[in-house]
């Protein structure tokens, strides 16, 4: 029942319908700003008193917080509903793409967060729904879901292998595709098994979905070349696994990644763009990858990556990463700065 309620809540957010989240005795009703409009807001909040929930990263950009704890840019911050904070003003609070074009009409004031666990859970649900993490909030409401329900929605424990088939691909004709899914999430993750187990730990690549790089050949990142080079490297190694994880935009979804790109067009780097949107710098959870490898019977691996956080994330799921194998591709003029930011700000190894 609760699984159904979370799926319905994600759907409701996308459609601009309010949801409710319970934190102990407190219940918050929430209307996502991105999918609301002035009429829905008037119906949700007839007294025009509902404060606005945003994340700490966004609040810091708006100078509503003095300090940004780098570890928690996605923590909840509540903004008092000043009389001048009408619907359009709230949209400007929610969407950093408008910052340069529309100077904000403050002053705004942060107030203590009511029901912080429910508020954090709401921001998480916005990410799952691929929306901006910003809501109008009021107390009370029916059919509330709980933060634990949302944890269960994201839990990879119920991941299963659904089907598998031979799939010759460019660079690895001897390959098999294995498809995974959970009952909760619409994301269908894929493993490409290249070659055959030979008693040695497989060479593994975790590839997070990048529609722009993988499909359109975007030069802004290194994803497309990394994907193809990984297939070749695994084939050359004799045996291994490519996991294609549906974690577009480091877990914030395609639309939010493209918003981050729009901010990059304004001069912000990939780290600051995520923070300004109100998301963690990397919102991925490698639990899915760990579970996929275990279902494939591979819990001792060599990992192709430059990202020590990926190694740590996978180790935390109980997979033994016996070696990190660097996975560098030559830069191009469009992704040079992106790669330098990864090196300088997110600990990627040279
Ligand atoms: N939010 C956001 N996501 C991005 C951006 N550029 C690329 N991505 C996403 O980043 C992910 C690719 O990262 P990966 O190549 O898996 O990994 P990594 O963490 O850089 O580590 P490596 O294993 O060393 O490549 C994909 O989901 C891309 O869609 C960006 O500017 N903003
Ligand atoms: Zn990419």
Automatic annotation (TrEMBL):
Its cofactor is Zn(2+). It catalyses: GTP + 4 H2O = 2,5-diamino-6-hydroxy-4-(5-phosphoribosylamino)-pyrimidine + formate + 2 phosphate + 3 H(+). Binds 1 zinc ion per subunit. Its EC number is 3.5.4.25. GTP binds at residues 205-209, 226, 248-250, 270, 305, 310. Pathway: Cofactor biosynthesis; riboflavin biosynthesis; 5-amino-6-(D-ribitylamino)uracil from GTP: step 1/4. InterPro entries: GTP_cyclohydro_II, RibA, RibA-like_sf. SUPFAM superfamilies: RibA-like. The keyword Acetylation does not apply. One of its GO terms (biological process) is riboflavin biosynthetic process. Residues 334-350 have a biased composition (Basic and acidic residues). Residues 325-350 are annotated as: Disordered. One of its GO terms (cellular component) is cytosol. Catalyzes the conversion of GTP to 2,5-diamino-6-ribosylamino-4(3H)-pyrimidinone 5'-phosphate (DARP), formate and pyrophosphate. NCBIfam families: PRK00393.1 (NF001591), ribA (TIGR00505). This is GTP cyclohydrolase-2.
